[in-house]
Design brief:
Keywords: Cytochrome c-type biogenesis, Membrane, Transmembrane, Transmembrane helix. Belongs to the DsbD family. This is Cytochrome c biogenesis protein CcdA. The structure is a single chain. The protein has 249 residues and is mostly helical. The chain has 11 helices and no strands. Helix 4 runs antiparallel to helix 7. The longest helix is centred in the first third of the chain and has 35 residues. The radius of gyration is 19 Å and the shape is globular.
């Protein structure tokens, strides 16, 4: 299981996080969120503050935001893994159910299957606290984690299903930590290079669609591997095909 998660599972989780960032209901709202998080300083600096200083300040506050939704996702990972451990006697059946869920999520991400309306819905939070401070940024990140969970549900649900098959809570938490990393790194890069990010938003949307298809294919293959009990073989195949992955985990 360690090899499975260190190669196949963690790679899927990280790519899934990036795909979630580039999804149609997250990417267009990133500039507004970053501007609020930094107290309206992105990409404009305060009086007497250099552009570089403003960018690094925005990066720090965005780090608090990323920490907020990471806490939510890691907690979800711990919860589903704990529940999964209650059904250790039914590990075979659990793997089949989880594999089907992961593959189905992959088909939704690819656009091959239309997701139910409740999955496509998301909930916006309009916090009354002022931006530009670490604690509000942290709370806003947690609100993002809860409010956008239905929107990024297909990818997140697939990762959680994989986490439910983990043999330990720490493995499930690690899996969701890597997912949060994949979602958080683009946020941090967008904060640091806000002007460039805004100009290239259209290109990122097109790239996001391609990445969603790739992610969907990976999730379908992963789901089949989990359901058939061939996840170890899939991990070994990844190692042989992409030797650089041997340094992960």
């Amino acid at each position: 299981m360690l090899l499975e998660f260190s190669i196949a599972g963690l790679l899927t989780a990280f790519v899934g996080g990036i795909a979630s960032f580039l999804s149609p209901c997250v990417l267009p709202l990133v500039p507004g969120y970053l501007s609020y998080i930094a107290g309206g300083t992105v990409p404009i600096a305060h009086a007497g503050q250099s552009g570089a200083t403003a960018s690094w300040r925005a990066l720090g506050l965005s780090g608090c935001f990323v920490a907020g939704f990471s806490i939510v996702f890691i907690a979800l990972g711990a919860s589903v893994t704990t529940i999964g451990r209650l059904f250790l006697a039914y590990r075979y059946e659990l793997n089949i159910i989880a594999g089907i869920a992961i593959a189905a999520a992959g088909l939704v991400v690819m656009g091959a299957v239309k997701a139910p309306i409740w999955v496509q819905r998301y909930y916006r939070f309009n916090p009354s606290v002022n931006g530009g401070r670490p604690l509000p940024a942290l709370f806003l990140g947690m609100a993002f984690g809860f409010g956008w969970t239905p929107c990024i549900g297909p990818v997140l649900g697939g990762i959680l299903a994989l986490g439910a098959t983990s043999s330990s809570v720490s493995s499930g938490m690690l899996l969701l930590s890597v997912y949060a990393l994949g979602l958080g790194v683009p946020f941090l890069l967008a904060a640091l290079f806000m002007t460039t990010f805004t100009k290239r938003l259209g290109s990122l949307r097109r790239a996001g669609r391609i990445l969603q298809i790739v992610t969907g294919i990976i999730m379908v293959v992963m789901g089949i591997a989990v359901a058939s009990g061939q996840l170890m073989r899939f991990a070994v195949w990844l190692l042989k095909t992409f030797p650089v992955l041997g340094g992960i985990g």
